[in-house]
Write a structure and sequence with these properties.
245 residues, alpha/beta, Rossmann fold, seven-stranded mixed beta sheet, 7 helices, disordered N terminus
Length: 245
């Protein structure tokens, strides 16, 4: 997520652990329904999602709902450029995932996972560390009539998913996370998984490790990005130079 959503609130925030998704799940779903609306991302009109109009207001409402500061930003409430591009690519090239097992990492709204299911994936898992995202993915999968399994928890220190295709949109926006994600994706690639990344050229994108597959001009929310149209690339992760330990 770009600095526009983080800056100006950093002084109010402190680290917070993931919130147990089994705590009041229906209340979380009700919160999402109340503070978002159903609409289709501009670049992927085949899919509708519960999305928000304004970021900071929703973030504050989330903190009020939980009675705590330091909760994760509402990444799940917006269709980011990398995710839109990756979803578009899967719908336009269904052979990429058709009949395959797929994992959508840091799924957010579930947009990419839903696109994979619509493109004919045999099975789709969407993983997240934000319990509101877990609820949103469930709601969005239901409204799009797509079967998706949602996994809650941090996967980066554990084993890589045993899947054919691993998808990751907009995950290189911070340096520490970018390094950890790349190491994990490298382990997945070394295990034989095809890894696709959607990214509009964020600061910590490891371009030297990626090869471009497709490029799109994606319409995004101006309040969250530095322009209304983001030139966004779908990348394939190259095999690691040496097998990660």
């Amino acid at each position: 997520m770009e600095a526009g959503l983080r800056d100006g609130r950093r002084d109010r925030l402190s680290p917070a652990p993931p919130i147990d998704p089994d705590t009041a799940p229906e209340r979380r779903r009700a919160f999402i329904r109340a503070h978002t609306r159903l609409w289709a991302p501009p670049h992927v009109p085949e899919i509708v999602l519960h999305l928000a109009d304004e970021a900071t207001d929703l973030w504050e409402k989330t903190e009020e709902e939980l009675g705590a500061l330091g909760v994760p930003p509402p990444f799940w409430a917006f269709a980011w450029a990398g995710g839109q591009a990756l979803a578009r690519y899967l719908l336009d090239h269904p052979g990429t995932v058709a009949g395959q097992s797929v994992h959508d990492f840091a799924s957010g709204s579930g947009l990419v996972a839903i696109a994979a299911a619509k493109a004919g994936a045999r099975s789709v898992i969407a993983s997240e560390i934000d319990s509101f995202a877990v609820a949103a993915i469930g709601l969005n999968a239901a409204v799009n009539a797509t079967p998706i399994t949602v996994h809650f928890g941090d996967l980066l220190s554990g084993p890589v998913p045993d899947v054919d295709v691993l998808l990751a949109g907009d995950v290189f926006y911070e340096q520490p996370m970018g390094k950890a994600v790349l190491a994990w994706l490298d382990r997945s690639r070394a295990a034989g998984t095809d890894v696709l990344v959607g990214d509009p050229g964020r600061s910590y994108l490891p371009r030297e490790r990626l090869e471009p597959v497709a490029e799109y001009s994606v319409e995004v929310t101006r309040a969250l990005e530095d322009s209304e149209i983001k030139r966004t690339t779908v990348w394939r992760l190259k095999p690691p130079l040496r097998r990660p330990r």
